């Protein structure tokens, strides 16, 4: 378990997850940070730099060049280990399981050894203090890096993760996570649990905007992010990644809805 302590961060902190090989999305979030006057030292990514979209190498390069802080996601762990899949733990035969083979193979072909070595050195947990709040940033969970934690997950799931974090670094006031792809905030006991969402794929809500989180003195806000969707789709098409996620960038509907709890699905069946 690698832990990185950033010390005290003053001013706004921008937090985001899942660039997902979407070069246009990472470009947009860095422009957003610059417009707000937020330096790289105050920008933190919750991991999964590469995934569904068409430009994994370029996206990794830009993240590294930008100097933002990155927490290791399961995709980084798997690529660093030269593994054969993304390590998400999808149910065998599910849409996510079947579709992941294509995009992971594309990422595996294009991410070079230097990037893999860098990924292997990324921390599993980043901590810092902000306006007398102790903040921990993780990927999915501490008990399981690829744990899917949703806004509707049972409270016991959050309590288990908070206990695991406390065992490592003591009690915290805020946890920022990623992985599941849908931003939310939830109060659990004395802790605010924040999923910062992902910037590389819309949150299965029927829209094109993605999301990031902004931590200020007032607390945490989930903010929309707009980027050049058409160029991102074109990159996927040129890469042959036309399994459905390229349509998701336009429609805001995942081709892998079966990974979601029923309450978060958009299908007529789930609504009924």
From TrEMBL:
Listed InterPro entries: Calcineurin-like_PHP_lpxH (IPR024654), Metallo-depent_PP-like (IPR029052)
Calcineurin-like phosphoesterase domain segment(s): 35-208
Domain of life: Bacteria
SUPFAM superfamilies named among the record's database cross-references: Metallo-dependent phosphatases
Family to which this protein belongs: Belongs to the metallophosphoesterase superfamily. YfcE family.
Protein name: Calcineurin-like phosphoesterase family protein
Organism: Shimia isoporae
